[in-house]
Amino acid sequence: MTIQNCSFYATQLLTRELLKELNKIKRERLLIYIEEWRKLRHLIFSLEKSEQTHDIPPFKVDDVKLARQLYTKLREIFPCNAPKEIEISYS
User: Fold this and answer.
1) Are residues 46 and 54 in contact, defined by beta-carbon separation less than 8 angstroms?
2) DSSP secondary structure of 21-57
3) Domain positions in the chain
4) With 0-12 CB in 10 A as exposed, 13-18 as middle and 19+ as buried, what is 1?
């Protein structure tokens, strides 16, 4: 019975420490990516609602810059908000 308790608590401690390490990696390395993608998502939603460009500082992550360029080009091709309007205009 004691061996079972020890192995259970050892596994629990390892899992807890692993979660701490993963959270530390997330904070140190991935938080900038998460924030940049969040800013881009908010920009796109605000553009979809009101067509006003908000002054957002330039993005630091290359993937986000590329995604914004891609969105801008797609928006030029499909200027309508409603899918039915796009279907009617391109059929």
Assistant:
1) yes
2) HHHHHIIIIIHHHHHHHHHHHHHHHHHHHH-PPP--P
3) 2-89
4) exposed
Position 83 pLDDT exceeds 60? yes
pTM of the entire structure?
0.62
DSSP, res 64: H
Q: Copy the structure tokens of residue 53.
A: 């460009």
pLDDT digits (tens, 9 = 90+) for 3-15: 666 777 788 888 9
Closest CA relative to residue 36, chosen from 5, 7, 65: 65
Label residues 4-32 b or e (16+ Cβ within 10 Å = b): eeeeeeeeeeeeeeeeeeeeeeeeeeeee
* Separation CA 41–CA 51 (nearest Å): 14
